[in-house]
Amino acid sequence: MVGRQATAGTPESRVPPVWGSVPPRNKNFTGREELLATLRAGIASQVTAVVPQPKTLHGLGGVGKTQMAVEYIYRYRHEYDVVWWIPSDQPFLVKTALAELASHLGLPAASGIEDAAKEALDALRRGEPYAKWLLVFDNADQPEDLLDLIPRDGHVLITSRNHRWGSLVDAIPVDVFHREESVEFLAKRVRNAISERDAARLAEELGDLPLALEQAGALLFERGMTAAEYLEQLKKRTSQLLSQGRPAEYPLPMTAAWSISVANLTETLPEAVELLRVCAFFGSEPIPRGAISRAPEGLRPELAGLINDTIRLGRAVGELGRYALARLDIPGRTIQIHRLVQKLVQDELSLEDQEHYRREVHLLLAAYDAGDPDDETSWPKYSSLLGHLAPTKIGDSDVPEVRAFAIRMLRSLLSSGDYQSARIVAEDFIDRWSAESGVEHPDVVRVKLEHTNVLRELGEYDQATELNNEILAIAEKVLGPEDEDTLRALRGSAADLRALGDFKGALERDEQALRRYEEKYPRGHAGTLRAAHNLALDYGLISDYTRARELHDRAFSGWQQQGTGTDKSSMVSALTGLARAVRLSGEYSEACDLGEDAYAIAMEALGAEHNWTLRTGTDLAIALRRHGDYERAEELALQVHERCVRLYGLRSPDTLAAATCLSNVWRTRDRLDEATTLVVDSVGRYAEVYRGDHPYSFVCLTNLAVLRRVQGEARNAYELNQRAIAGLDAGLGRDHHFSLTVALNLASDLAALGDLDAACRLGEDTLRRLQVLFGDVHPLTLTGAANLSADLMANGQTDRAKAMIDETRARYERTLGLNHPDTHVFLNGRHLDADFDPPPI
After folding, report:
1. Tally of helices (H runs) and strands (E runs) in the chain
2. Are 125 and 175 in contact (CB under 8 A)?
């Protein structure tokens, strides 16, 4: 039976609300009724039916597995709200397709491909917003790549050539056509211009293989060739192939049919054959027409002439479609060659010619203008090229322009947040390029620079430090001290020093980097702005928030002045840094205003789950808590923490920062048990992510100590704070924000233990240091004054205590106000707790 077509206006004609990348219906689809019935019965009777799990369409190339899946979709699409087609021969493609689906499900934009794919799968499993969905994984030949990506509670089809699926699930084998199906197909394909007898003879000779029949039918229709003429050519081609020794993995009829089509196309339009050979060295996924519409230098004149001639190129593309040698998606502007046809084309060529065509494909990809990889609007274009990276062997090229393209692809993965894929790609390029060009080649330096950024995002600080030190030494020698890549490595080394806890060393390194940038580049240069931002981080980490504010403001203003096309993540990070510096200066209301603005920009430009959106959300939640808006702070902190755990795992630096933020919110809201559980876990993980002597590893102990004291364990709190302050004094000195925070809490521990003399002595010393560092009205200084006044009163120094209370009350009134939660605690004569939130490094 010929494929049924739905009449307009009937229920069968309904297109699901979410419909993605489904290939056009084959108007010549024929037969397969028994297989389609088996498939439908299985998929309708089970929550999940998978082709091939648990109902499998598997078989050799060219038997029509994909076409059968397409036909199933069009017959039953009216029963689904979501139908999504997923190319599956490479893991990259599966995740990219799922990530694209996420936006169509109405999900907030994620930080990258990996995260968006997870979001899409979670939404499908929940049935929100759609419970009736169908996913099709096409050409899924490696079960191990797919098993973790198959959602339940819906319908899933998988096509595969790999019979190993049959050992995992029940399978539906797809074989060649039955003879009557072949005859019916040819009658339709050649539009009734072939007799049943001739069709049967042709089917016999072509082994009833659908792909071979499609190409034969196309040739008979396009050239007006008779069946007898085709059979005569087929006989000659088969004899030639047998004498040559055909490739064992290809059906002889398919090879013969393909060679006839190519031979006839060579006579009518030889440039179309040339285009076919070029396309055979891309991946088997759709090729953007833009990738073959511009002829870069280095192409052979005949190919360059074809690409530069719009009319000839259009005709060549059209002929490939008419001869069934390519699938054309006119609205999507792509051209796709069946993988079996690609392999046949490749094997026809000598090894030397294969390498020649592969090099030309590399040049075409390098010339394709996908845009700035740091610009979120360019990410879809880069995603469309991912399926062609491995098949084209792009990593084997030593052509500078091609390697530059490869690095742009890597940067797009990094910018979009697909860190695991970026790591795999980077390590592959590093291995190949180092072996080919040596470890000191500039291209190797550049790809290693990107790799260090990936490692930092993954929290692999030791590995990043080791690699960046190696890069910086080579770059200084090979590229020179003023080269931009050398300066990027210099900036990276400062980040590594921050990760090691050497804040002063990082500041010196970033001062050097900014000076070098300013000597070579304009003030508004992207590298200069990033250098200023990094230096601002350093000043914040040595408690100089005035200078940090100035530099963050400079960076943010610089990004703003760039207008459209600016790097949104860098702009958001600069504004978030400014809001943080304002908060740490004690201006909580202003910090909330800036933080809300930064969060709104991040949500709009980057999406809810981009790493910088999450970091901005954490900083905003901290500012809201400091300002006294506990309810909004808890809502946001919970949201960010959940996303960080889901996207990055428990060990990520961003997850640890979000956990610290949430635990502090819970403590202020008297959810002490939950806060303690979170803090205990975070303390252990900080020691894993950072070195044991890192300031963060020490200062996070004070958060646990505060909880222990509030829960009546003053002795344990004292011991924890003693450990913390000893480590901080050794690394940062006492006159640092972190150290003084712990000192305030240690004085509270002493008071709780009844040693009021010691508490007053430590409180006096800490208050004096805070006044020198921050002035009299900084919130931390006021905390020191409030706590000391309580200890003085309890220790019998009433007059001095009353004078300090009056003075502190007046300062609270001028700054935070008398209705602020901190002011209430102070006026009630109780101790204020000082806590820690880790800034990003």
Report:
1. 37, 9
2. no
